[in-house]
Amino acid sequence: MLYQIKIRQTLDATWDEWFAPLEIFPQQDGTTLLRGDLPDQTALHSVLNKIRNLNLELLAVTTTDSDDHT
User: Between the CA of residue 65 and those of 2, 5, 31, 52, 69, what are the distances in Å?
Assistant: First the structure.
């Protein structure tokens, strides 16, 4: 399933390994989108735990089937 996670803080490419396999997309409004396929709920919770442990502000989590993403 394709996940898109929006956080309030700006992250750059130096965080790529930390949030792999998600890609990091800094936004002009100072937020960041983390986007990519996660295999299961355990992987999602792992990412959400990292966000919490880094004291980042979670704004949104959205999903779509991977097949719908082009």
Answer: 6, 15, 24, 25, 7
CA gap 56, 49 in Å, rounded: 10
- The answer on pLDDT for 70 being more than 50 is no
Does the predicted model carry a pTM greater than 0.90?
no
Other Cβ atoms less than 10 A from the Cβ of 31: the count is: 17
40-61: b or e for each residue (b if 16 or more CB lie within 10 Å)?
Answer: eeeebeebeeebeeeebeeeee
Q: What is the pLDDT of residues 38-69, one digit of tens each?
A: 999 999 999 999 999 999 999 999 998 765 55
